[in-house]
Please model this.
Amino acid sequence: MPDIVVASDLPPPLVDFVPTLQWYTLQAGLGNMLKKITTIVAAGASQLNGSPSTYNEVYVNAPGPVTITMPHDNLLIQGQEWSIKDASGHAFTNNITVVPSTSTDRIDGAGQFVLNSNWASLTLTWNGTGYSIKV
Model:
């Protein structure tokens, strides 16, 4: 009969060394990128911070409309993704407007994208000159 291993016989889990709400994704190209989660809980304007080494998930759980300004293009790399989600289920009443940081950056040719359906989400990919909506 094989030996039975109980939890007390095992070393502490390695997951203790992983920072909370961050993990790495494997991808072709520049290598591994850090996944960062941001939660917006205040209505009004929010500026997202950019970093060429992150993929980003943004959850909006605010009591009113939110306008999210994307990072400036010099803080992004081609292929970098941003996902934005109505986490509160109130986007129909409290629209989430996503805008590029400059007038020359576009979201599939438009100056903004509005999430106006409850529980809606949007994934954008920086294509080097603007944001492409990923379906």
About this structure: The two ends are 52 Å apart (CA to CA). The chain has one domain: 36-134. The domain at 36-134 is CATH 2.60.120 (Jelly Rolls). Strands lie at 22-25, 33-40, 44-47, 54-60, 66-69, 81-86, 96-99, 113-115, 121-126, 131-134.
